[in-house]
Amino acid sequence: MFTNNLTSLLKIDCPIIQAPMAGGITTSKLVAAVSVNGALGMIGAGYMSPIQLQELIRGVRELTSNNFGVNLFVPSKFEIIENEIEMANSMLNQYREELGIIGERITPPSVEDTFHSYEELIQVVIEEKVPICSFTFGVPSKEEMKQFKQHNVTTIGTATTIEEAILIEKLGMDAVVVQGSEAGGHRGNFISNHEEGLIGLMSLIPQVADNVNIPVIAAGGIMDGRGIRAALRLGAKAVQMGTAFLTCEESGAHPLHKEVIIHSKVGDTTLTRTFSGKWARGIKNKFILEMEEYEDMLPSFPVQNSLTQSIRKAAASQNLKDYMSLWAGQCASLARIETVEELIQRVMDEEMK
Amino acid sequence: MFTNNLTSLLKIDCPIIQAPMAGGITTSKLVAAVSVNGALGMIGAGYMSPIQLQELIRGVRELTSNNFGVNLFVPSKFEIIENEIEMANSMLNQYREELGIIGERITPPSVEDTFHSYEELIQVVIEEKVPICSFTFGVPSKEEMKQFKQHNVTTIGTATTIEEAILIEKLGMDAVVVQGSEAGGHRGNFISNHEEGLIGLMSLIPQVADNVNIPVIAAGGIMDGRGIRAALRLGAKAVQMGTAFLTCEESGAHPLHKEVIIHSKVGDTTLTRTFSGKWARGIKNKFILEMEEYEDMLPSFPVQNSLTQSIRKAAASQNLKDYMSLWAGQCASLARIETVEELIQRVMDEEMK
User: Fold this and answer.
1) Tell me: domain B5-352, CATH 3.40.50.300, correct?
2) ipTM above 0.85, yes or no
3) For residue range B38-71, what is the model confidence (pLDDT) as tens digits?
4) Chain A residue closest to B329 (CA)?
5) Do A200 and B202 touch (CB under 8 A)?
6) What are the sequence ranges of the domains in chain B?
7) Chain B residues with CB inside 8 Å of A283's CB?
8) What are the tens digits of pLDDT across the range A230-243?
């Protein structure tokens, strides 16, 4: 067993948090298996409806009484720009045609619904007495923070720079995930611009640890005991691992997504905003490469995300990796297909060496 | 004293190599001080003439009999494209005017001279019996490798990806520096393209260490004992530190360059090719920001480097940080102004903790 102030706070036996990957990866089976094995399981609720989240929380509780958490996407205001959408659609239609979904109606999300859904998700977290809630793409308001404190919810922010980490500490959050440029999936920058927020984890951990007093959780490219030990030595109190859990047997990721990751090589990932309108790291495929030159003209998140949704869905059901969003971090080549128990035991054994 | 197969090979007492920064930073005083204190001093000979290199080598030898090394830039063929040069000059003239150097004649380098100079530098390394030679921007030819082996020169390559590291091992080099995306100064990618070569050190070290048998040296954002310990834990046998030595009292870096670094914050660095035509990381300033939109149209290295040379020189002599190339890694905010002895003692004390 491994103890420090953060593992005590989170009530976990090893300094590992399973990254709250959105989009169906964090099934109740995955989250519960992580928590049962002494790490912290996290539900990626970013794209969920309140009912879906409630069901998933209850599903996890049926499998374990250990601590687990929920991650929410903090919404920002966005604009629906008809021109942009039309142009994006004109490029996306070739893929829709290829996938046989050309006629499908696409409704962009409304700002109001997006904010409303976020508020409802917060209420689910509180009503279901989820002990831990983390946030990506922004921070809760002061009023929301008050609510979380009142209901003893431990809160964790996500930062890509020192200034974001300092803001998270100032708001009264309990810990901060620092996301290095190596990380798979969406970039979490919310004050800094995209480029400023691309700091290698090895540089980010010590500089944030020197500037905040709350515990630092390191995220981005950590796949094994070497990465855990290195992160702890740099000043982190725990690590958050995404890709390593994504390929676990219990994860809900598409089997093809897992396959592509375990056969990937270093340099196979890239940053793209073609899938969602927000920068994210994934394995390069036809869609990313072909859309690259239009990247700057695409609608912003979550509008572009809604436009590509049916493409990603059809690609997944037709087993076509060319059009799926194959999120993965820069250490993807170290991934294995194994059970959560095997993964956690292996990396903790390595960490102790 | 710290020992492994690499420190034994290099005959050093601690697993630290001073990065071979070009452009006047690696004075004989700096290189010798590093070697005297048990680390490996390196001469950055990239822009030197054979005579300058010979003098510097002899200068170091006057100060120490310990091991030290020389780094060479491996040239690639490049084209002189008159249109590109004209366009670049038309943008650069405003800065030349501001600095009072508008009339100065600028001669772009010739491919022939560049290759010839590189060959002469190799001969200096061999004739002066320099024990260690490292390479950036490429690898020596098989014939050159044969020469180095004949003369017992230990050779070290620089890689930004696994495939570059594997090529370096196959060529028979003795060790490989892996340069993470965090690193200050020029990117060393030579097979991979710029973007593919931007891998965070925490992801790069273990993946390269798993794929080559020669010792791995970690470079990029390592500033203190935390970084050294983390790099060793990830699979490196030593670290190469640039920014940390740049601000040392013995370094030949411009005092303003040192000042800017020690007062910098995380996120102050960016990647730019406006100074030299090759991507490099430095502290953002007016020149980088204003030239950013023309970045894709500028001549390639070393042509653009020759065009901005007088601007950088005049800026340095007029103490104008706006137009200087302020190379620095992503951990620049951790830099201090101290002696080499203080730096090495401090980081090794931290490493042992």
Assistant:
1) no
2) yes
3) 999 999 999 899 999 999 999 999 999 999 999 9
4) A203
5) yes
6) 5-352
7) none
8) 999 999 999 999 99
